[in-house]
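Could someone model nicotinamide-adenine-dinucleotide with this protein?
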Amino acid sequence: MGQHMLEDDLREWESPLYRETVSQFDRVADLMGLDANIAERLRVPQRAIVVTFPYRHDDYSEVESLFGYRVQHLLSMGPTKGGIRFAPDVNLGEVAALAMLMTWKCAIVGLPFGGAKGGVRVDPLTLTRAEKQRVTRRYTAEIINFIGPNKDIPAPDMGTDEQVMAWIMDTYSQQVGHTEPAVVTGKPPALGGSVARREATGRGMVSLLPAAARQAGLETDGITVVIQGFGNVGRYAALAAHQAGARVVAISDISGGVYNGKGIDVTEAMGWVDLHRSLEGYAGGDRVTNEEVLLLDTEVLMPSATGGVITERNAGEIRAKLIMEGANGPTTLAADRILNDRGVLLIPDILANAGGVTVSYFEWVQDLQNYFWSEAEIVGRLREIMSRAFDEVLSVAVSHKTDMRTAALIKGIRRVADAKLARGVFP
Ligand code: NAD
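Reply:
Sure, complex below.
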C-alpha cells in the first residue's frame, strides 16, 4: 500500500474486483520497488464520473432511472481508452478496476493511452433496439464533456457492439457540430471503423497460441481448446483457433455450452447464434453447464465471457495446461496461486486480450488521418505488436523468475512510472 493512503480512502471504489486489482498492484509495486509516491497515485483513478439519467420504455408510460459510470484511471500517457459495458450488476468499483487494468494493458503493448472504462447498470438483453438506442444516447450526453478524440475514446465491451458505438459517435458529432469518427473505436466500417476490429481481440489472443503452447510444452498441431463465452471475443477466438489448426472441443455462452470431442463446427455455431441470439438448442455436441465447461479435458482453456469464473473452488480441478484469458479478470488471486502451484501456464488478460485495444488504436490513428489501411496491414501489425509484447513479458518472467501475470504487470507499471517520473508534479 502507498505511503500515505489509508484503506478508508478506497471506500468509493469498494468492490471485490477493485480490491483484487489493487492488492495485485500493491504486491507487484512492492516486488519491483516502485517509488512510493508513484505507487500511491496509481492505486486510485484520476477521474471518475457517476451519472444517473432517465430513459423511457417503449410503452411510453414508464420512465426508469439508470446509473452510468466512466472512470479514467491515468491521464498522463495521452487520451484515455477503454470499453463501455452494459450489464445488470456493473458498479463504480468494477469499472474503476477495469480502468486500471486498461492502463497496464495499453502500456504493455506500448500504446499512447491511459486506461479508462465505462458502464451502464442495465441488462442489455431486456432492452429493445429503440430502448438501447435511447439509453446509449442519453448516457453519451451525460458524459459528453469528458470524452473526445484527444480526451477519452470509448470502445465496445460486454453488452455493447458496433451499433452502440455508432450511436455514441452520432450523439457526440451532433453536439460538437461536425462528424467526429475518432471519438469511439469499434464502429461499423461505414463510419470510419477499422476492418478487422471486430475479430481483433480473439484473433490477437490466438496469434499467441503457438508461442504460449511451446512455453507450456504442448504440441500446437490439433491442440484442444475450450472457450467460455461466444460473444465478440469468444466467437472470433474460436474461429481463429479453428483456422490455425486447433480443435475447438467446447464453447459456451450465458445459456450453457456444448462439448464435441471431434471438434465443434465453429462457423455453424456462429450461424446458429446469429439466428437464435444464443447457443440454446444448438445440437452440435453434448450440452454442458458453464461450470463444467471450465473443467473439461482440454489442453487449452480460454475463459472469454466474464470476470471471476476461475476461483479457489474450481482452480484445483481445471485440467487445461494452458489458460489464456480472453475476458477481463476471469481468475481470482487465490485461483491464480493455485494454478501457479499446479504448473498451469496462464497468459493474463492484460496481455492475452490486448489485441482489441491495439486494433482500436489503429482505428483511432486511421480516423485522425482519414487514411485507411488494408486488412493485411492491420493483421500484420497486430501480430507483430502482440508477439513483441509476449516476448518482452516472457523475458521479464524469466529474469524475475516469476509468472506471466506478475511479469506483465511489472512491464506495464514500469512504463507508466517512468513516464510519470519524467513529467513531474504540477504545480
Ligand atoms: P459480449 O457481450 O460480446 O459476449 C459475452 C459472451 O459471454 C456472450 O456469449 C455471453 O452469452 C457470455 N456470457 C455472459 N455472461 C456469462 C456467464 N456468466 N457465463 C457464461 N457466459 C457468459 O462481450 P465481449 O466483448 O466478448 O467481452 C467478453 C469479455 O472480454 C469481457 O470480460 C470483456 O471485458 C473482455 N474483453 C473484450 C474485448 C473486446 O474487444 N470486445 C477486449 C478485451 C477484453
